[in-house]
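#struct-pred
JK: can someone run the complex with calcium ion? inputs below
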Amino acid sequence: AKARGRNGYRFYAPSMTGEGVERLRLETFLRRSIEKNEIFLNYQPQVEIDTGRLIGVEALVRWNHPELGLVPPVRFIPLAEDSGFINQLGKWVLFEACRQMVRWQDAGLRVPKIAVNLSVKQFERGSIVNMVAEILKETGLEPERLQLEVTESVIMNTGDAMVFINDLHSIGVGLAIDDFGTGYSSLAYLKQLPVQTLKIDRSFITDISSDANDEAIAIAIIQLGKSMNLSVIAEGVETEEQAAFLLRHGCNQAQGYRYGRPALPQELIERWRD
Ligand code: C2E
Ligand code: CA
Ligand code: CA
Ligand code: CA
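RT: done, structure tokens with the ligand placed:
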């Protein structure tokens, strides 16, 4: 590789580590992933604990690269965020998720609601309300059946996030606070935001029956939700014991391997139709 450019600047800093090279390679691949049809969505069921009824699904993005294989989102989402690709990716995900809701409906499976993750970076270029409205119009999905998931950091770190979130509320889409309890406290913001749902982070659920602190936090979130008239859903529910605990403390909504792993659209039809 060429070491110096025309004016003597090094193109490749000698300090560039193997990790840096790998990152660059991933980023280059990632940029073409959509056009190469390597991106697809998995959907994970959200259920009512006592009845086992399907109340919604969460869309989770997947990247399958021919050489690298399945790259986990924790590896490529941060890259997409740093490179700005997240805006294109986020739009693709939203469109595909909304379109899938209509396809399921046509195939005889009515999924009440779809949850889609938004990155903090998608709020930095201005309001995304037009993009969302356009996708809803194009796919024909009712706004009430779309729930956007944002983390506390979106609310706390983005200057205009409150305005943008209110914009989204004004067109009828729902909003959930993801990984609730793990970020900065957003308790003061909660009462001003048009939020409908809190998602208890998996880290509080895993050891819920053995760790007194996790137990206390989960109970506190459930109570908070109740008193603010918000719905509360627990993520990462894997066992009967965790589900029973949640139900006992007034949380009747869950998502986790106990009810289904993230899966392809057809698998959801087979599992949940009728
Ligand atoms: P998240 O939004 O908190 O999503 C839940 C993650 O927990 C998913 O991981 C899911 O597969 C996993 N999970 C669900 N149930 C269980 C369980 O019972 N046990 C365990 N151990 N894990 C469970 P995944 O799909 O690897 O996604 C990781 C993160 O990547 C997501 O966390 C989300 O922050 C991000 N992500 C995924 N899809 C998108 C997307 O379309 N856009 C954006 N911006 N971020 C996304
Ligand atoms: Ca989520
Ligand atoms: Ca989450
Ligand atoms: Ca989480």
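RT: quick notes.
The first helix runs from residue 18 to 31.
The pocket of calcium ion (ligand 3) is lined by residues 178-179, 199, 235 (CB under 6 Å).
JK: thanks, will look after standup
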